[in-house]
Amino acid sequence: MRVKRRSLPFAAVLAVALLVAGQATAKAGNLYAGAENHYAGSQIAKVEGAATVPEVRYGADDQQLGHDVSGHQGPVDWPGAVRSGAKFVYVKATEGTGFVNPQFAQQYNGSYAVGLIRGAYHFARPDISDGAAQARYFLAHGGGWSKDGRTLPGALDAEYNPYGETCYGKDAAGMVAWVNDFSGTYRAATGLFPTIYTSTNWWKRCTANNGGFGGNPLWIARYNTAVGELPAGWGVHTIWQFADRGALPGDQNWFNGSAHRLLALALG
């Protein structure tokens, strides 16, 4: 005997489709919960500490003062940053493959308009997708480079996982492969190695202190009066993030060299 199947009314089918789509959207949203407050050093400060603002001073010819900002800061007073001594800035562009800094245009274009050398950075999420996919997402949402003397190489922010396990569920070999995929994809698109932002402690823990990235400029985070030990593979740092607050909006940084060397980095 043949059993006649009843088809669901269109309204019921539509309701189910909307429910599934809503669940998928909610799941994607949960992957980036709090992303606006994840910025270069946000997790390093929590794990390694940043209790005081170090009084670190250099002669103007030796180091260039700069900073880094994200959506966490909101719209930035760029003329004020210049008056306070800023020479360069890194701006968070993206996180993973699903978050773009809502303040990126104001921050990236605004810093350029007042004459700063600026670059974009990507907050790494090795738990979500592979390094190559995230490099492409970064490049598509502000992370590119041009040889105009005003744009720094894009940077990869590799630090403690704000969502869970410190190393995003990867062993050292897996993390090294992930960073290498990101770096290689970025270099293939721009001709430049991306800057790597990290702390020595995180790099040791999550890459087993891999020494294979010495070709990438190093942006080291350490909130103290001296840079201290660098990760393996780097004999010198390019940028030092020495405090999570100070005279400039966001985190405080020194570029390790003269204004001429800063320009050279921007020129590739």
Question: Please, could you describe this protein's structure?
Answer:
The protein has helices spanning 10-31, 42-48, 78-83, 104-113, 131-140, 172-190, 200-207, 259-267; strands spanning 64-69, 88-95, 99-100, 117-123, 155-157, 195-198, 218-221, 239-243, 251-255. It is an alpha/beta fold and 268 residues long. Strand 8 (239-243) and strand 9 form a beta hairpin. Helix 5 runs parallel beside helix 6 (172-190).
Q: How many beta-strand segments?
A: 9
Could you report the average pLDDT, rounded to the nearest whole number? 89
Secondary-structure element sequence?
HHEHEEHEHEHEHEEEH
Globular, elongated, flat, extended or rod-shaped: what is the shape? Answer: globular
Q: How far is the first residue's CA from the last residue's CA?
A: 77 Å
Question: How much beta, percentage-wise?
Answer: 15-25%
Strand order of the largest sheet: 1-2-4-5-6-7-8-9
Low-confidence stretches: 10-27
